[in-house]
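haha ok so turns out i had the wrong file open the whole time. this is the CORRECT one, sorry everyone. sequence first:
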Amino acid sequence: MKTPTLPASLLATAVLLAACSQQPAAPTAEAPQAAAAAETAETPAVDTAMQPVDAFMDRIRSHCGQAFAGRIVADEPPPEGDDPFTGKALVMHVRGCEVDELRIPFHVGEDRSRTWILTRTEAGLRLKHDHRHEDGTPDATTMYGGDTAAPGSEVRQEFPVDAESIALFEAEGR
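then structure:
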């Protein structure tokens, strides 16, 4: 059985999200008293493996209210057939900038049916693709995506397709 391939929008996610990354601001120096107090204070263990996902979210959140143009680079040359991305302007808008969730509308030409939803989970990040029809009803292939399986970095995260999405693609013949 052939494993379903991910739609171009999922492949474009990493490219477009990385396109809006910028260098983080330099950390401010702590006062000597604060540093000494921190050394003597009992602090809970920090899971450093999760820090890259928080930095990734923070970098994207810092662009809230901005839009970024992008292009598909994973499908070079473009696939033959009816690909809705071929020859279209690709624009992401960083919106819905909550602490644990970012909503990023993704436009393909005049098609404004897609929104990427990045959510902070206990284990990392989740990416889902919310597809809607013009009247707001969900598309048959809405809410596909996956969770990070590794900590990634502050500029790159990978979202392997989850079992729910594979079942959805199979049910839709994709």
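DSSP finds four helices and seven strands in the chain.
again sry for the mixup
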